Structures are given as C-alpha cells and as structure tokens.
Amino acid sequence: MSGGHGHAGGAHRWRLRLAFILVAGYFVVELVAGLMSGSLALLSDAGHMAADVVALGAALVATRIATRPDNTGRRTFGSYRAEVFASGLAVLLMLGVSVYIAVEAIGRIGETAEISSGPMLIVGAVGLVVNVIALLLLRGGASDSLNVKGAYLEVVADTVGSVGVIIAGVMVSATGNAWWDTGIALAIAVFVAVRAVMLGREVLTVLGQHAPAEMAPDEVEQALAGVPGVSDVHDLHVWTLTSGMNVATAHLMTDQDADPHAVLDNARLVMRTKFGVEHATLQVEPDTHTGCKEVTW
Known about the structure:
Blueprint: H1 8-11, H2 13-37, H3 40-66, H4 82-108, H5 117-142, H6 146-175, H7 179-207, H8 217-225, E1 230-242, E2 245-254, H9 260-275, E3 279-286
Parallel strand pairs: 2-3
Antiparallel strand pairs: 1-2
Keywords: Ion transport, Membrane, Transmembrane, Transmembrane helix, Transport
GO molecular function: zinc ion transmembrane transporter activity
Main location: membrane
C-alpha cells in the first residue's frame, strides 16, 4: 500500500505544528507561574496543558507516520493506526493528570494556603489569548481531519481551563478564600477525566475492531442485499482503520443471470455513497457455487 499522501491530516500539519509551539510555550509559563503563586488551579491547568502538549506532539508524529510511504511491503494497511495509539497515550496522560490534581486538591482541604491571585489572573488571561489563537488555527482543518479535530477539541478544553483559572483568580482576590482555587482545580480534574474516558472508549472501539458508531451492520447488509442481482450477503465485517477511515468486507451471492461486474460496481457505489466506505473488499459469487461457507467469526 502506498503512503497516505492524500491523508487529510497531512495537509494540516502546519496547523498542528503552530498550535504545538503555542501550547508548549504557554505550558512552561503556566507551570512556573503556578509554582511561584501556589495556585492549584494554575498547576492543574498546567498539568492539563502538559497532556495536551504530548497529545499535539503525538498527533504531529502520528500524522507524519501515517503519510509516510511503506517501503517494507508488509504494512498492507499502511500506518494509519499510529494516531490511534497516540490517542491512547493521551488518554493515559489525561487520567494521570486528573488523579494527581484530585489528590492534591483533596490534600489541601482543611489547610490554609497563601495564593497570589495576581499571577493567576495574568497567566489565565495570557492562556485564554493563546488558546483562542490555537483554536482559530485548528478550526480550519477540523472539518477535514478527525486527527486535527481531536487536537481542536483539546484546545477547546484548554480554553475552558483558562477561563476557570481566571474565575479562580477573581474569586480568591475578591473573597480571600483559597477554597475557590481548590474547588475549581477539582472541577478541572473532573472535566479532564471525563474527556479522557470518552476518548478512551473511542480508542478501544477502534482497536477492538467494532463496527463504527455511525454504521449499523444490519443496515449495511440490507443495503447490499438490495443491490440488483444479489441473492444473499454473508461474512460481512465492518470496522474502523483509523479516524475517518472505515473498511468493509463481504461475500455477495448472485442470481445465475446476474452480471457480476455490474453487481460489484453497484455494491461499491452503495458502500461509498451511503456509508462513506472507500475501501470495501467485496467477493461476488454465483449462487450455484457451493464452496463458500459463512465462517463462525
């Protein structure tokens, strides 16, 4: 299989690269400010940003691997699943960050903490500006590539975190109560954990070769059975190779007077136009052929 030169993510690498530079630079600033101010909200958002830096970096690497031509001849499906493994790494990082934040926040309950609200407000405002710029960069490719869309959603979450830091800074400054910082840190931790679980479910669905959420196997079977000349459909399998790339295989039994070429062309057209499957391997067999039996798996 050739390298994915037409892979949508490859066309938007420059967006991912610029967003990575912006987010990585801000992460360093936020981490230093969080340590200096003692703000757990800043540190929690910095931890979230660290996970996003890794996620963006992994998306960049995965996009490079996915668009790289296969010179071994053994990767018959290419290397598109590199982005799935990158997403799995991001899930583990996000869960680790959320657990760390929660433990730190719970440990602060009942303790007094000196928090400088000034750095929280300044860094939170800078982070909001950085995230808005990154959002504008990634939004242009989010509709074309699910890999870019995932990065875009990561930055959306970063924006929420920056808003949370600003709110914490305002409330600590107005009330002098550090509980606002701890409470918002916990809220950020929960938000990150929920996103990690949702992304993790998608990763496991792909790696488990489940049918895509938007494609019901029964509907695919009915659509193929409705192709003129098809008498039976069996050994149907549908799964996701990587984000936005679904694959299908099936055996189509045909009537004796059916034109196998027309059946194949019409079946491929159904898979492409109705289900968005560009890569469908369809085996056309006359119903007089008795050598094909549906496998148990």
